[in-house]
Amino acid sequence: MPIRINGTEADAPLDPRVSLLDLLREGLHLFGAKKGCNQGACGACTVLVDGQRVLSCLTLAVQCEGRDVTTIEGLAGEHGLHELQKAFIEHDGFQCGFCTPGHICSALGMAAELERGVPSVVTADFSDEGATLSLEEIRERMSGNLCRCGAHNGIIAAIAEVQARRQGQTDDKEAMA
């Protein structure tokens, strides 16, 4: 059964031991997801599988048969960059760019979790339909993605801005502190 990657069907590898990350990078030449630690500790390889964030270095490609995989390469549309990609640029949410694709995919997965009302460790009230978006909440939910260059504040600011727009908030970024 094929895997849909960025809207295009790809055959699963014959070897069931191939990670999704290796299929993407070595088999399909999609180099956005990075092989950082190759142990699931840094988040540089984060992609979306059926809209949920996964660490592609720890996911076997065969586990994605019949599923939709979205990588950073699949986010830009006919009108240009995804709004989160634009926000990363505007807020200097990258320096070397190595971790940026994983952060962006993780942030999109985090947004879907927020919409579903999935709490985090810092969510104050579990009875809420959704977590109150705060910088602390974003930092906790993004804690599995590391940035070695020190662009973390720009990354959080970019995510906060896009989430505020999506939630229809008109308050500026500082109001969410």
What's the helix count?
Answer: 5
Biggest pleated sheet: 5 strands, mixed
Judged by helices, strands and strand pairing, the structural class is alpha+beta
Specify the CATH class of the largest domain: Mainly Alpha
**Spatial arrangement of strands, main beta sheet:** 2-1-5-3-4
Q: What multimeric state do the chains show?
A: single chain
Count of distinct structural domains: 2
Query: What is the helix content?
Result: 25-40%
Task: Kindly report the name of the CATH homologous superfamily of the largest domain.
Answer: [2Fe-2S]-binding domain
Distance between the termini: 46 Å
Overall CATH architecture of the largest domain: Orthogonal Bundle
Order of helices and strands: EEHEEEHHHH
**Averaging pLDDT over every residue, what do you get?**
91
- Outline type: globular
In short:
The protein is of the alpha+beta class and 177 residues long. The chain has five helices and five strands.
What's the layout of helices and strands?
Layout lengths: L2 E3 L2 E3 L9 H8 L18 E4 L2 E4 L12 E3 L12 H8 L9 H17 L18 H7 L10 H15 L11
Parallel strand pairs: 1-5
Antiparallel strand pairs: 1-2, 3-4, 3-5
Helix pairs in contact: 2-5
